[in-house]
C-alpha cells in the first residue's frame, strides 16, 4: 500500500498498485483495471493510473506518490468499461507517512479537480 498526495503534498488516499485506491479512512473508492481507475460508486472512468500517479480524464495529475515521476499526459483515449470487481477486504490503516516536498509543476499541469471530486465523478 502506497500513500497518495495531492498537489499541496497533503495525504489524500492510498493505492494498492494495479488493484485498488482507498481514501484516507481506508474506504474503497476506486478499482484499477488495465492501468485505468474506475469509480466504485458510479462505475465511471476516472482516468489513467500509470504506476503510482493518478490522472484525470484529460491527462492532468490528481494524486501522486514520491516514488514515481510526477507527470501528466495528453488527453488519453477512453477505455472500455471493465467488469466490476468484488469488494476487497478492508486493509488495516497504514501509519501516516511523512509529508513529502511539493513536486515541481508536472508536465501537463495539475488537475482542477480535488481528489474527492475525482473519485466522486
Strand count: 8
Structural class: mainly beta
The percent of residues in helical segments reads under 10%
Strand content: 25-35%
Cα gyration radius (Å): 13 Å
Q: Please outline the major beta sheet.
A: 6 strands, antiparallel
**What is the distance, rounded to the nearest whole angstrom, between the alpha carbons of the first and last residues?**
23 Å
Total helical segments: 1
Domain count: 1
Compressed to H and E, one letter per element, the order equals EEEEEEEEH
How are strands sequenced across the largest beta sheet? Answer: 1-2-3-4-5-6
Average pLDDT across residues? 94
Unreliable spans are: none
**Overall geometry:** globular
Structure summary:
By secondary structure, this protein is mostly beta strands.
Protein model, in words:
By secondary structure, the protein is mostly beta strands. The chain has one domain (1-71, 103-121). Helix content is 4%, strand content 27%. The protein has 1 helix and 8 strands, in the order E-E-E-E-E-E-E-E-H. It has a 6-stranded antiparallel beta sheet with strand order 1-2-3-4-5-6. A hairpin with a 3-residue loop joins strand 2 and strand 3 (20-23). The longest helix has 5 residues, at 115-119.
Output the keywords.
single chain; 121 residues; mainly beta; two-stranded antiparallel sheet; 1 helix
